[in-house]
């Protein structure tokens, strides 16, 4: 986990609520999670305070505050759009937000009663999100670039995992992705970080999408990679059949992104949070299984 630039504790959160949203200050306050970018605190039963724990994450918060209210009305799933916007000040130096609390479990922990129905639901979310973005849409040097711009990351991550992953098979997937026809349509909105920890399952159904800090505009294949991070290889075919931009080139590029993300998650999981190791290893297994069958 990145080391925080600012330590967010209960004293700070209570002070912020008392100063800016006094009607909420009497509700029960519980620490919910520490993410890479934000510290999360539940307020009562229905809300969650999200405060950037690093200076770099403050810009991601500002992006969410600006764009999620624009995107949310057109999406078929609830997202972590702000309900209230907190101001920076002497108590805390960054903008912050209060969003709805979504019940459910991260997708990597959930058992799906209807995997194919969930695959179609995920496709409908991406169909709605992956619309042409305006010229002033945010950029992201790690997500809205072509795969060729990530060669150094692929090579360094593969080297760090040497002996722990199927190097030759992953390199074959990667090389096919690099040769695939690039995205030729307009840059579309992409979540940018659509992995299973940011997909929530409640009552056996996909219920919400959270953490849009990497939101940007680019090739939808970046998001489509999440199909292999979340779904079994045979169910991925159901997803691809429902997704509006599917063609052989997009599948190849998305499979390349999935291989890269799977390696990155596996590397993070070596000394970091255990869920990343789980998601990473599952993703690589699914990528190679799918590639061997197609």
Describe the structure.
- With about 290 residues, this protein is of the alpha+beta class.
- Helix content is about 45%, strand content about 15%.
- It has 2 domains: about 10-100, Phosphorylase Kinase, domain 1 (2-Layer Sandwich); about 105-294, Alpha-Beta Complex (Aminoglycoside 3'-phosphotransferase, Chain: A, domain 2), CATH 3.90.1200.10.
- The protein has a 5-stranded antiparallel β-sheet with strand order 1-2-3-5-4, sandwiched between helices. It has a 3-stranded antiparallel β-sheet with strand order 6-8-9, with helices on one face. Strands 7-10 form a two-stranded antiparallel ribbon.
- Helix 4 crosses helix 9 (about 250-270), helix 5 crosses helix 9 (about 250-270) and helix 9 packs antiparallel against helix 10.
- It is globular and about 60 Å long.
- The two termini are about 35 Å apart.
